Amino acid sequence: MAEQAATGNSGAVQRFLSVVGADSMVSSVWGYVDTTIKWCWIPNWLPSWCPTSQIQLQTAETKMLRCVDGTFSKQFVPISNANRLWTLTIGSDHAKHRTPIVLLHGFGGGVGLWAHNLDALSQRGPVYALDLLGFGQSSRPQFSADSQEAEEQFVESIEQWRAKTGLGSMILLGHNLGGYLAVSYSIKYPHRVKLILLVEPWGFPKRPDTEEADRPIPVWIKALGAMFSPFNPLAGLRLVGPLGPTLVQTLRPDFKKKFSSMFTDNTVSEYIYHLNVQTPSGETAFKNMCVPYGWAKRPMLQRMDKLHPDIPLTIIYGSRSSIDSNSGSTIKEMRPSSQVEIITIRGAGHYVYADQPEDFNRRVLQVCQKLN
C-alpha cells in the first residue's frame, strides 16, 4: 500500500500504513526521515504489551474464512532454515489439470483477506493462498538488513514453497508487495510462471528527485520523524498495546464495509489487528526495502527488461485508488512485443479484490481462461 501517487509525500506514507489504520499515528513521522537507526529491543517487549497471540491470530483467520463455501485445506509447508509458509488450498476436483492461481497478499495482509475471492476463483481450478514469509501465520525469521538480500529471501521462500507443493508452473496474482515479489520471482524463475496479475502493485517507479522540493515538509513533522525513525512502520499499533483493537476499528471502518456482506461484527478488524502485532519480521524487511516516503530502494521498473517477454502480464487498478497507475502504461511501453493488459475496476480503491469482488473475480477469470 506504499505505492507512489500524485497526492504528495504524506499520502504515500499513509497508504503504506493504511492496512491497519496506524497511518494517523505514525505515517506522519516514519516516512520523513532516513530509517537507519535500529533499536533491537523494541520487537522483544512490544508484542507482550499487546493482547494477541498465535492462537488468537488462528482464531481470527478461522472467522474470516467461515463464509467460504468451498472445501479448503490449510497447512504449514516447510521450507529451509526450519521456516514454514502457511498455505490455504481450494479448488474444483474436475479442473485439477489447470495451472493453479497462487495468491500473494500485500504488506500487512494474510490469506483471510481473500475471503471474497476464493470460491469464485477456485471454480476455474486450484487456488493457493499463502502467508508470505514474515507475515500472517508463516514463520517470522530475521531478514537481512540489505534490501536486495531481503528481497531474495522472499523470492527463495516462494520457490522453495513451490517445490514442496509440487507445482510445475503457476499463475501469480499479487497485490501490493505481493505484486512486486511476483515479478521479482518471475525474473529469476520464468519457466515456473505462466501469467502474472499485478493488483495495485507497490514498488515499481523510482522516487522523484524533485518530490521534497515541490512539497516542503513542515519542521514539526521532521522533528517527530527524528524521534520515531528507529521504529518499524506499524510500531505505533503495537505501542498503544490494549488500545490497538479499538484503534483499528476506529481508524479503519472502511474494512468493515468492504466485508459487510459477510460480517456484521468486528471480524475483519480483529483479523487485521492480530496479523500486524506479532513479531515484525516481514514488516522490518519491507522497511529495509524502502527509502523515505515509502518508495522502493530497488524500483521494479528498472528491471522489467529482465522479465521474459513470453510471460503475459495483466495489471489491475481501482478507479478510486490514489495509487499512480502510470507504471502500468510505462510497462506496456517497455514491452511492445509482449502481452500486457491494463484493467481498471470501477468503484474500487486500493483493495480492489474486496471493494468490487464480483467484478474483480470476473475479470481475473477472463484473463486466466486463455491458459490451461
From TrEMBL:
Key words of the record: Acyltransferase, Cytoplasm, Differentiation, Fatty acid metabolism, Lipid biosynthesis, Lipid droplet, Lipid metabolism, Phospholipid biosynthesis, Phospholipid metabolism, Transferase
Domain of life from the UniProt record: Eukaryota
Catalytic activity: 1-(9Z-octadecenoyl)-sn-glycero-3-phosphate + (5Z,8Z,11Z,14Z)-eicosatetraenoyl-CoA = 1-(9Z)-octadecenoyl-2-(5Z,8Z,11Z,14Z)-eicosatetraenoyl-sn-glycero-3-phosphate + CoA; eicosanoyl-CoA + 1-(9Z-octadecenoyl)-sn-glycero-3-phosphate = 1-(9Z)-octadecenoyl-2-eicosanoyl-sn-glycero-3-phosphate + CoA; 1-(9Z-octadecenoyl)-sn-glycero-3-phosphate + hexadecanoyl-CoA = 1-(9Z)-octadecenoyl-2-hexadecanoyl-sn-glycero-3-phosphate + CoA; 1-(5Z,8Z,11Z,14Z-eicosatetraenoyl)-sn-glycero-3-phosphate + (9Z)-octadecenoyl-CoA = 1-(5Z,8Z,11Z,14Z)-eicosatetraenoyl-2-(9Z)-octadecenoyl-sn-glycero-3-phosphate + CoA
GO biological process: cell differentiation; fatty acid metabolic process; lipid homeostasis; negative regulation of triglyceride storage; phosphatidic acid biosynthetic process; positive regulation of triglyceride catabolic process
Gene Ontology MF term list: 1-acylglycerol-3-phosphate O-acyltransferase activity; carboxylic ester hydrolase activity
InterPro entries on file: AB_hydrolase_1 (IPR000073), AB_hydrolase_fold (IPR029058)
Compartmental location: Cytoplasm; Lipid droplet
Domain (AB hydrolase-1) ranges: 100-355
GO cellular component, one term: lipid droplet
Chain's role: Coenzyme A-dependent lysophosphatidic acid acyltransferase that catalyzes the transfer of an acyl group on a lysophosphatidic acid. Functions preferentially with 1-oleoyl-lysophosphatidic acid followed by 1-palmitoyl-lysophosphatidic acid, 1-stearoyl-lysophosphatidic acid and 1-arachidonoyl-lysophosphatidic acid as lipid acceptor. Functions preferentially with arachidonoyl-CoA followed by oleoyl-CoA as acyl group donors. Functions in phosphatidic acid biosynthesis. May regulate the cellular storage of triacylglycerol through activation of the phospholipase PNPLA2.
Family: Belongs to the peptidase S33 family. ABHD4/ABHD5 subfamily.
Protein name per its UniProtKB record: 1-acylglycerol-3-phosphate O-acyltransferase ABHD5
Naturally occurring in which organism (per UniProt): Labrus bergylta (ballan wrasse)
Lineage of source species: Eukaryota, Metazoa, Chordata, Craniata, Vertebrata
